[in-house]
Amino acid sequence: MARKMEIGRREFMLTTAGAVAAGLGPACTWGASAQEIEEAAAQVGRLPRRKLGGGPREVSVLVGSATWASAPVEAAIRCGVNFWHKAEDWGSSVPQAILKNRDAHYCQVCVDRVRGNHETGQIDEEAHYRLVKRTVKQSGLRYFDDMQFHFGYHNVAELKTNRGFVRAFERLKKERLVRHLCLSQHHYDGNARVPAGQNAREILSAVVEDGVYEHAQFFYSYGEGEEMNGFLALARRKGFGTIAMKTTRGAGRLTRDAKLMKDFPAGTTPHHALARWLTTRTQLDAAVIQINSLREFVDTYSGAGKTMRAADAEAIRRMTAYANREVCRLCNQCASHCPHSVPIADILRYERYARDYGEGYRARLLYARLDRQADSCIVCGECLPHCPQGLEIPEKLAATHRILS
Ligand code: SF4
Ligand code: SF4
User: Fold this and answer.
1) Where residue 224 falls among pLDDT bands split at 50, 70, 90?
2) Could you identify the atom of ligand 1 that is nearest to the CA of residue 380?
3) Are residues 181 and 244 in the same domain?
4) Which terminal CB of the chain, N or C, has fewer other CB atoms within 10 Å?
5) Ligand 2 atom 4: the closest Cα is on which residue?
6) Quick check: 96 pLDDT over 50?
7) Are 211 and 273 contained in the same domain?
8) What's the distance, CA 302 to chain centroid?
9) Cβ-proximal residues to 39 (8 Å cutoff; 6+ apart), any chain
10) Using 50, 70 and 90 to split pLDDT, how confident is the model at 31?
11) Any idea which ligand is nearest the CA of 346?
12) Which of 186, 328, 347, 397 to mutate to test ligand 2, by most ligand atoms within 8 A of the CB atom?
């Protein structure tokens, strides 16, 4: 059972296809028995809910993801997790518990730019419209609750002048195939592949003022600066929904560092403290935390909505210090200073997938698609003074290349 429960996202997708072909069907929970799932759910308990933005919807303070293995998904459903990130990843294998109680769940579809990647691709109303229409049909969900513009806008001007994604949403909404419009937003300032790119906070602030989108996902974790906290305050005032992503900033690698864990505060764990902190000490509406097994689900989600204890506060303090020394915060402030246009933040984001989320396969796949990899770094040091964390960027790039190439 242990091996099945530790199954990673990609492996899950591959084995799901195999199981469906073998007639096992989507209800297969990969080795975790119904009793183990019930026990996990009982240990976590019912998650509290909170309003998502200014609308009437209430979502669990920690949301779920279709990228998880099936056993934690089943346990999460029992715990009242009701918002599902990347529901398109289920393909035609949406959990039966969601299909049978469809209106109790909010299922989100993520839609990418076309004819290129998130930097070079285009917004195309017709292509987005057709993709979502096809994906709804394939899923059997009847409709997606939230249509998410994946990666978001390159700058504020694009938000204001290119309404193709919004038009695709409006057409689909008229056909009752989608209900709410949202986006995830990355940083594009200093990105050599994105002319006039701006950072996520600037774009998100404009999105809130624009008033068309209802909520957003964005990078947020411990050690966050005043800029993103200022955005959260603005979003709360304006009734704009917020969901944090990329929340485990180094928690995965820290957990595997026996030396650091030896003296870790007793009675908590990095992921458990993270869950308590995200859901009680921030102005977020909700957050998603990547987990890879039923055991991780129990450890992490049992902290949702619970008060921080002294041990959790000390854990977050140590995790922040560790992350500030070791883990890129994906702020992109180094990007414009690299004369070789090395996509530093993308490379170090994939490092996080591999080292913190247990998603090595996905990380290698994404890394292989980069037009410029970490071995393009000539160790000139131009980027170093611009990293707010003082990271040894060339060393980190070289180490990441060894892991992902
Ligand atoms: S050290 Fe590497 S990543 Fe940094 S600016 Fe020079 S080439 Fe770019
Ligand atoms: S390497 Fe430093 S400056 Fe560059 S994205 Fe990461 S944290 Fe920001």
Assistant:
1) confident
2) 6
3) yes
4) C
5) 334
6) yes
7) yes
8) 19
9) none
10) low
11) 2
12) 328
Report the distance separating Cα 155 and Cα 173, nearest Å: 26
Residue of the CA atom closest to atom 6 of ligand 1: 380
How many whole angstroms separate alpha carbon 242 and alpha carbon 245?
A: 10
Average pLDDT of the chain?
Answer: 91
Tokens at 140, concatenated: 């059997």
Q: Which ligand is nearest to the CA of 391?
A: 2
Q: How far apart are CA 20 and CA 286, in angstroms?
A: 32
Helix (H) or strand (E) holding 404: helix 393-404
Higher pLDDT among residues 29 and 247, named by residue? 247
pLDDT at 400 over 70: yes
Q: What is the CATH number of the domain that holds 312?
A: 3.20.20.100
Please tell me the chain's helix, strand, coil percentages from 3-state DSSP, rounded to the nearest 5: 50, 10, 40
The answer to whether residues 142 and 9 belong to one domain is yes
Tell me the pLDDT tens digit for each residue of 37-62. 999 999 999 999 999 999 999 999 99
Identify the domain containing residue 150 by its residue range: 2-326
- Is residue 387 in contact with ligand 1, taking CB distance under 6 Å? no
Dihedral sign of CA atoms 1, 353, 181, 304 in order: positive
Which pLDDT does position 112 carry in this prediction?
A: 98
- Per mean pLDDT, which of 20-29, 319-328, 394-403 is the most reliable? 394-403
Give the mutation target among 348, 395, 397 for probing the ligand 2 site: most ligand atoms within 8 A of CB: 348
Mean pLDDT, residues 322-341 taken together = 92
Q: Does 271 lie in the same domain as 123?
A: yes
Say what percent of the chain tops pLDDT 70: 92
CA 379 to ligand 1 center in whole angstroms: 5
Distance 343 CA to ligand 1 centre (A): 10
User: Would the CB of 395 count as within 6 Å of ligand 1?
Assistant: no
Instruction: Report pLDDT for 357.
Output: 85
- Among the listed residues 94, 49, 86, 50, the one whose alpha carbon sits nearest the alpha carbon of residue 65: 86
Q: Is 397 in the pocket of ligand 2 (CB under 6 A)?
A: no
Residue type, 328: C
**Using a 6 Å cutoff on CB, does residue 383 contact ligand 1?**
yes
Q: With a 6 A CB cut-off, is 42 part of the ligand 1 pocket?
A: no
The residue with tokens 């701006």 is 198
Q: 326 CA to middle of ligand 2, Å?
A: 11
Question: What is the predicted pLDDT for the residue at 40?
Answer: 98
Beta bridge partners of 243: 217, 286
Tell me how many domains the chain contains: 2
